[in-house]
Fold these 3 entries.
Entry 1:
Amino acid sequence: MNVRRSAAVLAATVAIGTATPAVAASPSPSLPSGLYGSSDPTYDGVWRQSLALIALYRVHAEPAAAAVDWLAGQQCESGAFPAFRANPAKACDAKLMVDTNSTAAAAQALSAVGGHGTAVTKAVTWLKSVQNKDGGWGYTPGGASDANSTSVVIGALMTQHTPVSTIRNGAKSPYDALLKLSLPCADGGAFAYQPDKKGKLTANADATAAAVVGALGQGMVSVKAGDKKNAACTDAARPTPEDAAANGSAYLAKAVAKDGHLTSSLPGSENQPDYGNTADAVVALAAQGGTAAATGPLRWLERNSAKWAEQNGPAAYAQLILAAEAGGADPSDFGGTDLVKQLIATGPAPVTASQDDSGTSVWWMVGAGLAAGAGIGFLLSSRNKRKQP
């Protein structure tokens, strides 16, 4: 799960958790009232809102209606979403850049919350219309296919209950695009983000985490623990998406084996733990090999991610919730932190739910418990990622 500060700068700072301002207790008055987080949404508003709604859905928590309405209001008439639309009342024009990542994430989020079937279908229809000839997607329409974008779009395609393998541009499906980006075992069995200018593939841990989930035919809403062992990398004469996912998972398992986390660096800085991509790796490892396969990095996140999440806000809390949920941990007690409570506190207060005949609703109890909650603060997970060893 994984682009977004002009695509690279924001993605890098949030994924690694450095040089990011602390998140205020409540959104700034100058920001939309339905938006999660108080930092500038220009490059990640739709992405972080989508992750927040998906994470709440995964833990059966109901978001405020204002949060859902804000996301739905970001959609253009074409069906596409930009990273952020400052004036939803103004029609989208050619100057407003829309992208596949925001669109795919929003489609998954609106599908999860329900009641937005037409918007979801329009988003997926637009995504299909900009599918590349190799079967994949780049961050921008027509851009070279990359593993992260193709994988997040696969999650959106699944909202239509149509086999992903049948979504083709000519003869090529999204799985064909991912297979072209998978490396042989001699190079670790990982996935590359994109080929370089000479066509060479370089292993990228974040792209691998995204592609393992995508190659397994899963998305952020639907990802579940698998039952396949994370065996050693094995080359096949005619590799399948499942083969590539298994090899990518083996690569990730090896990458986190020593320290319990993935490592990355920003230009001019020392190598450091990469919290966001480690959370994505937990999801990928669990999707392939079950909760036991993700135990090491999940426990590392429980011990070490609290400060990073507080600094980076809703997208970070959402990533940790998704990792905890996929890895079999309790998001409400993740290393002593209630991730769900912290995420909710970064956005609009949930509306008190009505009581039904069986008594007080679960959401009413959650809302009441959060009334005095302290405020807090991806990717962002990725996209247009830096290369990772």
Entry 2:
Amino acid sequence: MNRLSVLDEIFLRSHRGLGTPIVLQGLWRTAEPVHPALLWRVHRDLRTGPLGRRVVRSRVPGARPRWQPNESAYPFTMTTDPIPAGTMLDWADRQGDDLNPETGPGWRLSAARLDDGGCVVALTCSHALADGRALTLAIDNALSGIPLAAPVTGHSDWADARSMWATVLGGTARALRRGIPERPAPVAHRKTLAGNGKSKRPTVAASRATAFQIPARDWNRVAVAHQGTANSLFVHLIAKMLWASGFTADTIAASLPVDTRDEPRVDNDMSMTEIAITRDDTPASLRRKARAAYEHRMTSPGGIPEELLQVVPDRLAYRLAKGAGERDILCSNIGNLPESLLALGPHACTGVAARAIHPGLRLDALPRTRLSGYLTRIADTYTLSLVGLDPDAVPTSAALTALAEAELSALGLPHTRW
């Protein structure tokens, strides 16, 4: 469909400063230089593919914004001089700047030569355009030419508005007749304002990120040894890291994204669920908790239709949905990546990773989420990408790396820095 979903609009508002800014990123590392001409061809195919679009707002009250093809794009760029391999994630973080899904461009393809003779390539896009699975579909399409499902042409703005108002008014009336239960008090977002107190200007949060590769046979071996699954071991690891960082509560609330697409589409086709993790939990108990949670996705309170968020003003919609999906940790298991991503033309990839980054995140408006983890598998390797969002507990990327290495070692998981 060519109309924005509720989730699309939540991510869109974050670009206007209403919520946590989120940008998706796929990373490829090679042991040798990649010729720029190859990446220019990939850039061309991305520009005319499903990422080549922008948001167009309707003037009809209640009609949802729609997607419009947009072939304008940032040019492909490659660094002139090699950068230190140890700083590649810092370089990758900067590729999320100035993306705008409304005015465009909402995505960027860039590359950097590394001082070890290799290369890192980054495809970065606004979360309003795509979720993690969709980003891999987009690059797979550009590399292999596999056609993706075309968006279905929607109704006119007036027809869409009538449908939306009917859904919202009818659903709200039914919810009111049943009685809306009292909402639990929201968990307060952390607020940390850096500086000497003399300036009230918000300070942008510095990035803390790291990534590791783990042999799939070892990851699965450890999961089986603990009577868990690859996914429950992942959730267990992220929770252990948070407690090791100094988190004092005995229960951790974990947010778990769930892919809901029934065919390959480049969009936000996902929902969220959550589990409560205690210090006594194991990969085995988390396996049971996650299985039960996947049957009960997060929904709007009291049966109020979530489409309400698309017909009220942005600031009101933001207040109604503030913190939706945010918990103490985010555990995003993106899953298996297509093996076509193991090579960029003739160049074999020594690493493939996917993650979210937060360009422009302010220290005076940190989200509830303190630690985010992203897990992918390609061929015989799992890649674990980590982003720290608590500058007090994890002040640097080096600290995050040390924290992760300690917990990976404690679980008997051999690992290599990405």
Entry 3:
Amino acid sequence: MEKRVMTDGKRRKGLAAAAAVLGGVLVLTACNDGDTGGTGASQSGQSQAQVDEAAAQKTSKAQITIAPKNGAQNASINNDAKVTVSSGKLTEVTMTSAEGKAVQGEISADGLSWKPSAALERATVYKIAATAKDAAGLEAHENSSFTTVSAANSFIGNFTPEDGSTVGVGMPVSINFNKSISDKKAVQGGISVSSSSGQEVVGHWFNQTRLDFRPENYWAEGSTVTLKLDLDGVEGAPGVFGVQQKTVTFKIGRNQVSTVDVSTKMMTITQDGKTVKTIPISAGSPENTTYNGQMVISEKFKETRMNGATVGFTDSDGKGEYDIKDVPHAMRLSTSGTFIHGNYWGSRSIFGSVNTSHGCVGLADAKGAGDPNQQGAWFFNNSIVGDVVIVKNSKDKTIAPDNGLNGWNMDWATWKAGSVA
């Protein structure tokens, strides 16, 4: 048999021909979509447009808006969280903390908005999921997540007196902020204090953290005072925002002013301008005189402990010069430790005749604070927080206006100069 050998040139021609044939098959396979009419591309475009149009017709027209925006930081705990809708009505809104705790809220009667029922927690991540329907019954959905302002980035004002309380005519509105306030104007602008008596009320900054309000003269007896805190979102210092939004009201009781005359060692109590009682007292000794000035009762204790070491009166061993664990009927007059209180350990002969205390004003009383017939008990039972106690004729200086609730010791012009409103 003849052995035939294919040369390289013939092999190349054969491969090329095969490739051409295969290439033609491949091209035909890749381009032919089975449409022998030649109009496939046009029909495909129309089909897609129809699909898009149909999808659009099935999309709800309801537009949901959630505030704060997704990812927001330092959100208000009072006002920021809200869901609204246009071209539809809300059907369901859920709000939860990152830990899954549900937040109560209510969709408005018209179905156009939702908000939480109470203030949110600080430094907390919240998630909101909302659903709404348009007129055709088609649903729309929206989700958002945000973080409320942290404790480090917020401030609050601790205020006195308490909401709903009845206080004496000398009670100022005193607000102590837990952070230093650099923008006093912004903060004071978010606070208002008014009286049903029509008295002008002015604020005074004692320092970066304390703001007090009072009228020129004592509050009118029987009047109602209203404090409004609208500090939510107010920037009190760079990056530090207020979170409070509330209204507080309190009543002014009868006008009781008690005057302690250190020289005569007597106290005269007046109510609505009429003297109701005179009580012998024992004030600060010549070595430990009592402050002069107008002082306001800020706290009342049926019994309390008084230790000299807490106010600087110590023996050589560092212990208090006195430590009485059951002082009866004590009422605070200053932050620094001035009280008017009952005294059961002193001789009865000192009251009205000798000043023997470490700076307080003492009244005759009984151990245990259980005898209503004692002078100390009578004064305690007939006094309320906010009553004024005036000390005069002492050899000490006038008490500082910011030592307790004692701004009445500042003249009106100076007081008003401390306002930035």
